[in-house]
Specification:
2 copies of one chain form a homodimer. Chain A is an alpha/beta fold. Helices cover 43% and strands 15% of the residues of chain A. Chain A has an 8-stranded parallel barrel with strand order 1-2-3-4-5-6-7-8, surrounded by 6 helices. In chain A, helix 2 packs parallel to helix 4 and helix 2 runs parallel beside helix 12. Chains A and B meet through helix 3, helix 4, strand 3, helix 5 and helix 6 of A and helix 3, helix 4, strand 3, helix 5 and helix 6 of B.
Chain lengths: 278, 278
C-alpha cells in the first residue's frame, strides 16, 4: 500500500483510526467460548462492526503467541479475513521485532511474505542491519519504535546524546531516515506526550506516525491532531481496549461499533478543522 | 535454574558452550526432508550429538516463526525434548521481545509458563515496565540486550549519554540492575568486541553474560575468556552455524559433535588456565 492509498482511505472514511486487536481469550464475552475458535470469532465480529470507521487493524503478536500454534492459526485467519473482505485496510503486525541481519530477514519473510501483513513494528536498539532487511518489499512498511507511551520510555529514549545534543528517540528518527523513506517507514510515537510531536514533526515532517496511547492508555486526540497532523494527515491513531472491550455481553460488537463511530466523528471534525480533508 | 546450578554444569562438562538452534529448513541435510518434521529431527540429532559438551541451547524464534503454526509446534517439541532428556541444560528463547507492561506480561507467560523456557532475550529500548514483567518467575532469567555483535550496534548502543557520560549500553547495564539481580538477569554482549568486556565487567561483575558472535560471526574465544570470566565463569558463549551446519551430509550430527567437542576442549583449557574450574 502506498501513502497515497492510505490517505485516500483517510479521506473516504474521514478517519485515521487503527483498532488494536489485542484479543485476550480471558477478556472476551463468555458466550463466544462455545465457538470453535473464540478469538477468531471475536476478531471477525469486531472487524465487521468497525471496518466502516477504521483505516487499519493492529493485531498485537503477544496475544496470539500466548496460544502457541493455535494462536498463529488465529492470527493468519484474522489477517486473511481482513485482506479478503476489506482489501483497502492497512494491517500492522505489532511484533516489535529486531535482530541481526540474517534473522531480521527471516522475520521480514514471515510477516510480509508468509503472513501478508502490510507493516511491522520494529525495535531500533540493534541499529541499521536489524531494520534494513524489512525494506525492499514495495508497498510494505517498517514502523520503528521512536518514543513509546509507557512509563519506562523515559529510561533510555529521553537520554541526550552528548555528541549530537539530541535525545535518543530523536537520534532514532534522524538516523533511520538513512535506511528508508516516507514511503516505506513510519514511527511509533506515544500520545501521552502529544506536545513532543512538535519536535518529532521537525525531524520527520512527511512520515506517517503510529500513535498508541489514545483511549485506555490516556492521551488526547485533539492534542495529537494539533501537534501531529501534516498535509496528508500523517497520523494513524490506535485504540484497543477502549473499543474492543467496551462491552462484554452479546452486544459487544454493536457497542464496539458505537465506540469506533464516536472516535471517527471526533477525527472527522479534527480533519475538517485543520483542513486536512476538505 | 539457579546460577549455582549453571556453574555446577559448567564445572561438570568443563564447558560454557551454548548451541544456537537457528534451524533453517533450507539449510539442513537433504535426507531429513523425508521425515515427518525435518526441523525437529535435525534439532533432535544435533541435541543428542552435542549435549555432552553443551550447557545451553538457544532456539532463535525467527527460524520457527517462519514456519507459522507448524514452527511453534516444532519449537515446543524441541524444548520438551531437551527438558525431558537433558533436564540440567539451560534453554534460552532468543526472542528479543519487549513491549508495554501488560504485553510483556503475556510474553513472559508464553515463554516461561506455556513453553517452559529457562530464559528469554529482551530488548531494553522501551525501559523498565517492558522488562520487569519477565521477573517474578523464580529460577527463570531475563537476558537483556546490552552490546550486540552486529554492525548496526554502533548506531545507538555506543552513543554517549550527556548527563551520565556513559554509553547507552553501559546505561542499560547500570539502570537494569534496579530491576533484577545476578540471580535473575543476564546480558547479551557481543564477542566481536571482547576488549569491551573489561568495561562491562566493571558494571556487572557477577552477572552471567550471553556472548554471541563466536564462530561464523567472528570473535575470539580466548579474548572473551580473558576479559569476561569471573570467579564462577559468568559466560555462556553461543555458537550456531559453525556447529549445526558444519556438515550437510548424513554425517551432520557426528560432525556437529566433533565441532562442539573442539570448542569444549578450548573452553576446558581456558577454564583451567584462569583457574575457574580446578
Amino acid at each position: 500500500m502506498t501513502s497515497e492509498q492510505l490517505f485516500q482511505q483517510i479521506q473516504k472514511k474521514r478517519s485515521f483510526l487503527c483498532v488494536g486487536l489485542d484479543t485476550d481469550v480471558t477478556k472476551i464475552p463468555q458466550h463466544l467460548l462455545a465457538c470453535e475458535n473464540p478469538v477468531f470469532e471475536f476478531n471477525r465480529q469486531i472487524i465487521d462492526a468497525t471496518a466502516d470507521y477504521t483505516i487499519a487493524y493492529k493485531p498485537n503478536l503477544a496475544f496470539y503467541e500466548t496460544q502457541g500454534a493455535e494462536g498463529w492459526i488465529t492470527l493468519e485467519k484474522t489477517v486473511n479475513y481482513i485482506r479478503e473482505k476489506y482489501p483497502e485496510i492497512f494491517i500492522i503486525a505489532d511484533a516489535k521485532r529486531g535482530d541481526i541481519g540474517n534473522t531480521s530477514k527471516m522475520y521480514a519473510q514471515t510477516f510480509f511474505e508468509k503472513m501478508n501483513f502490510d507493516s511491522i513494528t520494529v525495535s531500533p536498539y540493534m541499529g541499521s542491519d536489524s531494520v534494513t532487511p524489512f525494506f525492499g518489499y514495495p508497498g510494505k512498511w517498517v514502523i520503528i519504535l521512536a518514543l513509546t507511551s509507557n512509563a519506562g520510555a523515559d529510561d533510555f529514549q529521553q537520554t541526550v546524546d552528548k555528541e549530537k545534543g539530541i535525545k535518543l528517540f530523536e537520534n532514532v528518527l534522524q538516523k533511520s531516515q538513512e535506511w528508508g523513506t516516507s514511503e516505506s517507514l513510519m514511527y511509533v510515537v506515544g500520545a501521552t506526550r502529544a506536545e513532543m510531536l512538535t519536535n518529532v514533526r521537525k525531524i520527520v515532517p512527511e512520515h506517517f506516525l503510529l500513535i498508541p496511547g489514545v483511549g485506555a492508555q490516556g492521551g488526547s486526540l485533539a492534542d495529537v491532531a494539533k501537534y501531529g497532523f501534516n498535509a496528508k494527515c500523517g497520523l494513524i491513531v490506535n485504540s484497543s481496549r477502549a473499543i474492543i472491550y467496551a462491552d462484554k455481553t452479546e452486544k459487544f460488537a454493536e457497542v464496539a461499533r458505537e465506540k469506533a463511530l464516536e472516535v471517527q466523528q471526533e477525527m472527522s471534525e479534527l480533519l475538517a478543522q485543520y483542513e486536512v480533508v476538505k
